[in-house]
């Protein structure tokens, strides 16, 4: 956001540079976390390995409830990576002197497109091109000319839903933090930081669970038809 101090903004006032710098910093932090978690693997995990294993178990349990254990494990790398990347990006904006990349529509739109393209690819690969798109026409053939375009628009709207939900909430959180720090820069904002931390968790969870839901809708067509 213009007018707010950031460390990268002190190097260059170009907003594109600031955004890319924070996005690269997010990626570096995620890679460092992954490296620390896998650097010295132990049978009885400790430290970062323990935290990451608990996180992965949580993501797997989330997916198991939505798509079943087999598919939850299959798509665990995608969903867990998205979750970690989004969460670090969200948290970065809470730290004074940094800006959240997820407060930029380009960032959230790119993630939404990844999910959209991947779940459609998986749906076609699992069910075949004809069966997958035939599902869009609905169970009643007479209504297929009406249902097919509605389903197409519905799926495309998921890109907007995923990207704007994350972008809008994090952008709002950034503005809230900005106003809070201007009005009361010392001890009083601490409850606000707790609220922003909860929001960072919540928005990450929503993006992850929706990714599993969209994947379930794409690959489990045979179960829907039973």
Structural features, described:
- With 226 residues, the protein is mainly alpha-helical.
- It has one domain.
- The protein has helices at 7-11, 15-38, 47-67, 69-74, 76-92, 105-127, 129-134, 144-183, 190-219, 221-224.
- Helix 5 runs antiparallel to helix 9.
- The longest helix is centred in the last third of the chain and has 40 residues, at 144-183.
- It is globular and about 65 Å long.
Task: Name the features.
globular
Give a summary of the structure in a few sentences:
This protein is an all-alpha fold and 226 residues long.
Using the CA coordinates, give the radius of gyration: 20 Å
Order of helices and strands: HHHHHHHHHH
What is the helix fraction of residues, given as a range? over 70%
Mean pLDDT: 88
* Largest sheet report: none
Which blocks of ≥5 consecutive residues have pLDDT under 50?
none
Q: Give the strand content.
A: under 5%
Helix count, per DSSP? 10
């Amino acid at each position: 956001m213009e007018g707010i101090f950031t460390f990268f903004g002190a190097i260059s006032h170009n907003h594109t540079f600031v955004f890319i710098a924070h996005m690269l910093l997010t990626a570096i932090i995620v890679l460092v976390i992954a490296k620390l978690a896998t650097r010295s693997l132990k049978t009885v995990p400790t430290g970062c390995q323990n935290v990451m294993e608990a996180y992965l178990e949580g993501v797997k349990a989330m997916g198991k409830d939505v798509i079943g254990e087999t598919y939850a494990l299959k798509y665990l790398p995608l969903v867990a990576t998205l979750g970690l990347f989004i969460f670090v990006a969200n948290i970065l904006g809470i730290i004074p002197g940094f800006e959240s990349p997820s407060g930029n529509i380009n960032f959230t739109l790119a993630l939404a497109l990844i999910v959209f393209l991947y779940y459609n690819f998986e749906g076609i690969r699992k069910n075949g091109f004809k069966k997958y798109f035939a599902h869009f026409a609905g169970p009643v053939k007479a209504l297929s000319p009406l249902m097919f375009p509605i389903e197409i628009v519905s799926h495309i709207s998921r890109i907007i839903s995923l990207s704007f939900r994350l972008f809008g909430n994090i952008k709002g959180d950034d503005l809230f933090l900005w106003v809070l720090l201007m009005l009361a820069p010392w001890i009083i904002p601490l409850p606000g930081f707790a609220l922003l931390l909860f929001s960072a968790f919540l928005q990450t969870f929503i993006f992850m669970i929706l990714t599993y839901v969209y994947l379930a809708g794409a690959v489990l067509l045979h179960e829907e038809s039973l």
